[in-house]
Amino acid sequence: MNPKSRIIPKLDIKGDSLVKGVNLEGLRVLGRPEIFAKLYYEAGADELYYLDVVASLYGQNTLYEIITKTAKNIFIPLTVGGGIRTVKEIKKILSLGADKVSINSAAIKNPDFISQATEIFGSSTICVLMEVLKKNGKYFAFTENGRNFTGKLALDWAREVEKRGAGEIILTSIDYEGMGLGFDLELLNLISKNVKIPVVINGGAGLVEHVEQVINKCNPSGVAISSAFHYFYINKINKNDLPEGNKEYLQGKREQTKLKKFSIKKLKERINII
Amino acid sequence: MKRVAIIDYNTSNLFSITNAIYKMNLSPVTTSNRNKILNCDALILPGVGSFQFAMGNIRNFFLDHTLVEFVKTGKPFLGICLGFQLLFESSDEVEFTKGLGLIKGKVIKIKGDNRKVPHLGWNKVFINSKRPNLIKDESYFYFVHSYYASPKFKDLIFSKTTYQGLDFCSSVKKDNLFGCQFHPEKSGKNGLSFLHNYFKSELNV
Question: Which of A85, B22, B51, B199 is the most exposed place for a label (fewest CB within 10 A)?
Fold first, then answer.
């Protein structure tokens, strides 16, 4: 038997807020990540993934505070990533309550960082986030949310990540992320079938059926889901805990009919894993 | 409030397990000090990472004798993940390394052409014991490991788990020793329920 595919709510963090990119207008603040995290834990999430999307030295302490606030209330694995560059930062993040870290840019710049980190913290603690875009029919690894072309073929990079001891790959399709049109099955198969470490797919969940399809066809180790959960669970959040100005937009019925959303419970019933 | 020693030997992050012990209304004592350990009512040996590195640290902290001493008191001793594997006699991870030898058997690498390693994620625990009420049969727990333990005496196997055709021992029970490959502190409600039942039966809390 395979372990069941993990359902992993992914929370993009900016400063002390959970944010979501909205088309081209930038980031919208949805609320406090630790409140969403607690809801996701109680709803049956298998794991949580925090990604600091504008990681800066300035914002580090804020992220650190959120990790502890979150970890105190949840008893499932918590992965934290975004701008991690040093062994010291990994140590700090783990000591605050995270179980795993994800690294991307720092690993691409210096692949030996993966080896160093896995030697110290163990493979299972170190995930590599891969951001992938298709260019001229080939998949390439990117950094900086798809803005920075690295020139590395995605599969070559995945194999190197494995060779250097990372315990897991979080595979983001930049083309599919935020579209809500389903996952990039071709990309997932390409990577997952050619490495032996577990692969989590991220980017594209708009319907329960999309998740069902990716699990049935590719059996990924995990599926990371953002907006579809955030827009469902935001209705469960006390109005006072929502950011000013966004309340009407976020809880307004008219706007929300356009947003694709579903609950963890509905998803798990559908894919028959409880 | 009953005190639970959480052994701190520099191999893992103790946040989650400490947090889970608070949740049980017990008092966690993270330490590597012999007297403090022996004064506690129960002990947890956590751990992630390499067997060889962990055993090296245990010896450097002079913990090997203390842990054996604690087991002899008859008080409950819970090993989790690598802390469970360390209970065995040896591991072939990196190179042959002696373990604590509290349970006969060895630790072996997960192999297989099509198996992803590590075994990572939520998997079913099949109860192999007549002792009820600790874990609900066939409930899901969170695993992350590249090695598994193989006890010499199969009657010590408390539960089994299957990973793509590989049946392995996911927990053992021997007198006051309990060890589990899965992470109860990371297994959501199932994990908390296990910890609750464990401490209730062992410490009457």
Answer: B22
